[in-house]
Amino acid sequence: MTKNKNHIDINDLPIGVLLVKRDGIVISYSPSVLLLTDKPIPDGCRIDSLFPNLPFKASKKERTYTFEHSTHGKQYTYRANVKPVEWSNFLVWIENITLSSKVERINRTLVKLSAIGLESTSPEDFYRLMQEELNTLFDARNIYLVLLDKSRQRLSLAYVSDTHTINSDYPSGNTFALWVAHRGQGVILNRQQMNRLRSKHNLTFYGPPALCWMAVPLKTKSDTVGVIAVQNYQNPNAYDHNDLEVLEFVSSQLTYMIIQKERENELKLAKGKAEEADKLKSAFLANMSHEIRTPMNAILGFSELITRESISPEKKKVYADYITSNGRLLLTLIDDIIELSKIEAGIYSIRRQPVELDSLFNELHQFAINEKKRQKQNILIARDIGNNSGITHILADGERLKQVLLNLLSNAIKFTSQGSVTMGYRIPNNATIEFFVSDTGIGIPKSLQEKIFERFRQADETAQRLYGGAGLGLAISKRLVELMGGRIWVESEPNKGSCFSFTLPLIIPNTKNISRIGFPTKNDYNKITGKTILIVEDNEANVNYLSDVVIASGAKSLTAMSGSQAIELLNREKIDAVLLDIQLPDTNGLELIKRIKEKIPNVPIIVQSAYTPAEYIDKAIAQGAYGYLTKPIKVNELLDLLSELF
Ligand code: ADP
């Protein structure tokens, strides 16, 4: 088209102006229109062939339209103003408003993001809506957001949404996003640039390699908290510096909201935990109160009854038994609480020694049979040691191992009124031994199978009334197993039964060096007869008890109530063994052992103590003590140890 008289001379304006007939045929136009259409304009062409998205309509009123149009392969936003003029013609002004509309859209997006931030109930919800909003500004169909951990060295995936199947495990190494986080500046990369960077910095790409990748760090004034990235798999020019500016602009708003959301979430979790803990504490106190009161009532009631003269000696014996068994029950409860606090306070150490599996299971079997009688359950107790690994001994903390198995066994018997309880072990591989106790009892619903390992937890609140127990046994077992380097779990089906299993590292001891394996068998107490035992103890009741036991076994007993008295007696008498309370008021127990050993190096010392830390006992042994007993001392434990000694 050449210049003619209808040509409007406004060449330099960034606006295209056209004169159009009512049927849309272009009569004349400013040269700037050529810049907008990016192609020649043939004579007699229609305006909608130049701008297909402009909905031109002849109308008496002036109208404004906003439409998208591509020039040089890029999409822009235009505003067209269509005004009727003389001779039924129309004047059309077309203006590129991409930038101003983008600013408007960014503003709208920011306002929307703030609203989303306030309204969304979870971070996941927030990120999803955020993606929808960003997608109105540029292609954000493939997006991910990674957050840096506290050390600021590792990224974890907070959100991902992608048109390709994408792994939900974010790579742990040096990724492009981590590189952006450390760089502290946003980037747009095409495939070639990415390949170059990958070889230069040894970077890993997350997801399928994109043709265009844009990412910006999420920064506060002093810190980088994460990275947001979008990627396109088809167009190497999908993003330009305008998009980067937008993402950077949005990212500062986003950072603030993410931090806010993460904090809210942390608070919500902490609140949930605190409420749960509070509930558990109240339930625990109620349980404890019941647990302590029941045996306490029995003890007080029968202690009072036993003193009445009218009661026959047979009845007295029965009452004394009640008092003893209820006292034991209380002691177990106190032991459990102390045990748990000790483990939780981290003052528990594991002492590995050779354990003979066969004697361990003999003892467990005997325990289970007694327990079944005690609990009056008519069930079968079975042993399944169906393996031919040839392993007879393992190196483990025998006491703790036994404690866990005893607890699982007594639970299994408690919750099984028909069928059987089976115990055993397997060797699944040459690094692991797996112990199990299975039963055909009431079972545990799936939803509670993890919870029962928490402290003060019981599968059924009513179970406590029905079966007793404070919900500590499994919590202790779990901690002990973990302390020994294993893990514990349960498989169970309600009304069918449960199988509790736990693993331990399989360590095979050098059997040649085994002097005392696992659990002592009954000794011959005759060896004690005629020996002189010095009891060093300041508590009168304990002195009486220990003397009675020693005398009943045919030995002679001497008593010292203090360290100095003990030394004096050792100087004067011929003593065969010392039973030493390590917590005397006037003397340091370790010091006393040293002094005794200096005077009479060969005299064996057995330390007795209540809840002494293992390290202390280790020191006592290092000073020369022969062995130790934990209070309250059981008759056979004391006699076994003395027999072993002589
Ligand atoms: P306690 O037995 O003192 O209540 P535990 O920690 O040993 O405490 O057990 C917690 C809960 O786990 C029990 O109260 C019971 O509900 C459930 N449980 C444990 N062992 C079994 C089992 N063998 N069969 C069914 N339920 C069991």
> Which sheet architecture does the biggest sheet show?
5 strands, antiparallel
What is the averaged pLDDT score?
83
Ions, cofactors and other ligands present here are:
adenosine-5'-diphosphate
First-to-last CA distance: 124 Å
Major beta sheet, strand line-up: 2-1-5-4-3
Secondary structure tally, helices? 17
The coarse silhouette is elongated
Number of strands: 22
Strand portion:
15-25%
Using the CA coordinates, give the radius of gyration.
42 Å
Unreliable spans = 7-12, 512-523
Share of helix among residues?
Answer: 40-55%
SS content category: alpha+beta
Q: Can you characterise this structure?
A:
The protein has 646 residues and is α+β, with helices and mostly antiparallel strands. It has 17 helices and 22 strands. It has helices spanning 32-37, 47-50, 98-119, 123-134, 176-183, 191-201, 241-306, 313-345, 357-374, 398-414, 461-467, 473-483, 540-552, 563-572, 589-599, 614-623, 635-645, and strands at 15-21, 26-29, 63-71, 74-85, 89-96, 143-148, 155-161, 187-190, 212-219, 224-232, 353-356, 380-384, 393-396, 420-429, 432-439, 488-493, 497-505, 532-536, 556-560, 577-581, 605-609, 627-630. It has a 5-stranded antiparallel β-sheet with strand order 2-1-5-4-3. A 5-stranded antiparallel β-sheet has the order 7-6-10-9-8, sandwiched between helices. Helix 14 (563-572) runs parallel beside helix 15. It is elongated, with a radius of gyration of 42 Å. Residues 7-12 and 512-523 have low confidence and may be disordered. The structure holds adenosine-5'-diphosphate (ADP). The site of adenosine-5'-diphosphate has 22 residues, from helix 10 and helix 12.
